[in-house]
Amino acid sequence: MIDLESLLNPEVASIPPSGIRKFFDIAAEMKDAISLGVGEPDFVTPWHIREAGIYSLEKGHTYYTSNSGLKELREEISLYQKRRFSLSYDPEQEILVTVGGSEAIDLMIRSVVAPGDEVLIPEPSFVCYSPCTKLAGGVAVPLITKEEDDFRLTAEALRAAITDKTKLLIMPFPNNPTGAVMPRESLLEIAEVLRDTNVLVLSDEIYGELTYTGKHVSIAEIEGMRERTVVVGGFSKAFAMTGWRLGFACGPAPLLSMMRKVHQYAIMCAPTVSQYAAVEAMRHGDDDIEMMKKEYNYRRRVIVDGFRKMGLSCFEPGGAFYAFPSIKKTGMKSMEFAEKLLNEEKIAVVPGDAFGASGEGFIRCSYAYSIDNINEALERIGRFVKKYI
Amino acid sequence: MSEILSILEKGITSPEQIAVMLDMDEKAVEAEIKKYKEEKIVLGSKTLIDWEKAGINKVTAFIELKVTPQHGEGFDKIAERIYQYENVKTLWLMSGGFDIGLIIEGKTMKEVALFVAERLAPMDQILSTATHFVLRTYKDSGIVFNKKAIDERGFVTL
């Protein structure tokens, strides 16, 4: 019999499967459990956007688009980036439509990271950066962000981590799972450190629209940073379009042309129906963003207030849709807390260490749920926490 | 503050909850709500019920009226005469092909039809009526009827 194990790419085989998969499976089986574990909006895609997708199918727009994406869509993305974030990109050379923000992240890492290159990844953060780095032969270097710094990346931490091998810095803000945002003054400090280096920046701004404490600022907007930065954005979070799998990358032409090449051979083009729907989202979706953002903001305040009232320290998230309370007071590890909470009160949350070792002592609670749901969950978590602190 | 009104309209009425949602002082929210009620900006609240599903027969009709406005009174006087009836649930002055639109509820079609024939049609100012019976409610006050809210999202995702 063929020994498949021996035939696997050792790089891929060495990447551990998500350690909390088992926990997720147990959670999903549990009846009547309330989940605060989901990393996507609870809103369905606004109807006018869905309808645009349907119309595109009716009209028979069922072919590949150009590798870079529909010209119409790239032009709209260019206008959108200008309108919403004061960023200027040429739709011809500097914008690529991808299969979700995830593909754009992978493309950027694969396009610039050579074996042995170091990639600086603030932590806790979304789980894809480190495996993508490894698959590209790079070395993932975590940059621990701390609650006392509002989970922001500090200039000191960055400076201390840069070596001759540093190729790329990931900027995952607004951050999943902490909800941290980088205001302009923090970005200026980071830019100061980067300015005299050859370090490139991948700014994952998928949650950029969901910023509640001031306006989202892209690092590409800071003087001297545009030339080294690829901004990743997408439709999933801002327009509640996760299942459409559509994102984009914006950056200097030489970087984008490399990414386009990888994209062309690996993917061909993003789904056509999604691209037509996205054109509608860009043209007429700004009000939808505001409506959803307002709703998330209400929930954000309710959940943070709830955790604080039960005696847990909870950092005030400035963006995304997650609260990241500390559960250290209970004396439990994150996984233990999550398992017990699920068993005793039937509430699913994500242990903080799923987002890197520095997430230990925290849990991620999504507030992409109705207020009623959040209130019920808070009541149960409160009852649970009371037993242990 | 119009945001309080928008939240009240969603059916969230606890000042404590609203205060948290808006990052406001609870006492201030309470005072605002009190003021809105006094000024009749907040008029009341209702629960939306799918009577059909509850197995209770109710007949709803939309009635168009063409009327002659009265000198010096416009449409107000006639509107007032009509909305005093308990079974008139909603009444609007309209632009377009007719003047007054109203929604009537009754137990049977006959009851509604007789109300139009016996109460409305004979009024001097009413020139004509057209009665449209509601056959099915798909959506009312922003809420879709007969749709189960199923969360299709994965239970836990990163």
SSE diagram, text form:
The complex is a heterodimer of chains A (389) and B (158).
Chain A: H1 4-7, H2 10-14, H3 21-29, E1 34-35, H4 47-58, H5 71-85, E2 95-98, H6 100-112, E3 118-123, H7 129-135, E4 139-144, H8 155-161, E5 166-171, H9 184-194, E6 200-204, E7 229-234, E8 247-250, H10 253-266, H11 272-284, H12 286-309, E9 322-323, H13 334-345, E10 347-348, E11 350-351, E12 363-366, H14 371-388
Parallel strand pairs in A: 1-10, 3-4, 3-5, 5-6, 6-7
Antiparallel strand pairs in A: 2-8, 7-8, 9-12, 11-12
Helix pairs in contact in A: 4-11, 5-11, 6-7, 6-10, 12-14
Chain B: H1 2-9, H2 15-22, H3 26-38, E1 59-67, H4 76-83, E2 88-93, E3 100-106, H5 109-120, E4 126-133, E5 139-140, E6 143-144
Antiparallel strand pairs in B: 1-3, 1-4, 2-3, 5-6
Helix pairs in contact in B: 2-3
Task: Please provide a written account of the structure.
The complex is a heterodimer of chains A (389) and B (158). By secondary structure, chain A is an alpha/beta fold. Chain A has 2 domains: 142 residues, Aspartate Aminotransferase, domain 1; 238 residues, Aspartate Aminotransferase, domain 2 (3-Layer(aba) Sandwich), CATH 3.40.640.10. Helices cover 42% and strands 13% of the residues of chain A. In chain A, strands 2-8-7-6-5-3-4 form a 7-stranded mixed β-sheet, with helices on both faces. The longest helix of chain A is centred in the C-terminal third of the chain and has 24 residues. Chain B has 158 residues and is an alpha+beta fold. Helix content of chain B is 31%, strand content 22%. The longest helix of chain B is centred in the first third of the chain and has 13 residues. Chain B has 2 domains: 37 residues; 80 residues, Lrp/AsnC effector binding domain/regulation of amino acid metabolism (RAM) domain (Alpha-Beta Plaits). The model of chain B has no long low-confidence stretch (mean pLDDT 94). In chain B, a hairpin with a 6-residue loop joins strand 2 and strand 3. A 4-stranded antiparallel β-sheet of chain B has the order 2-3-1-4. In chain B, strands 5-6 form a two-stranded antiparallel sheet. Chain B has 5 helices and 6 strands, in the order αααβαββαβββ. At the A-B interface, helix 3 and helix 12 of A face helix 2 of B.
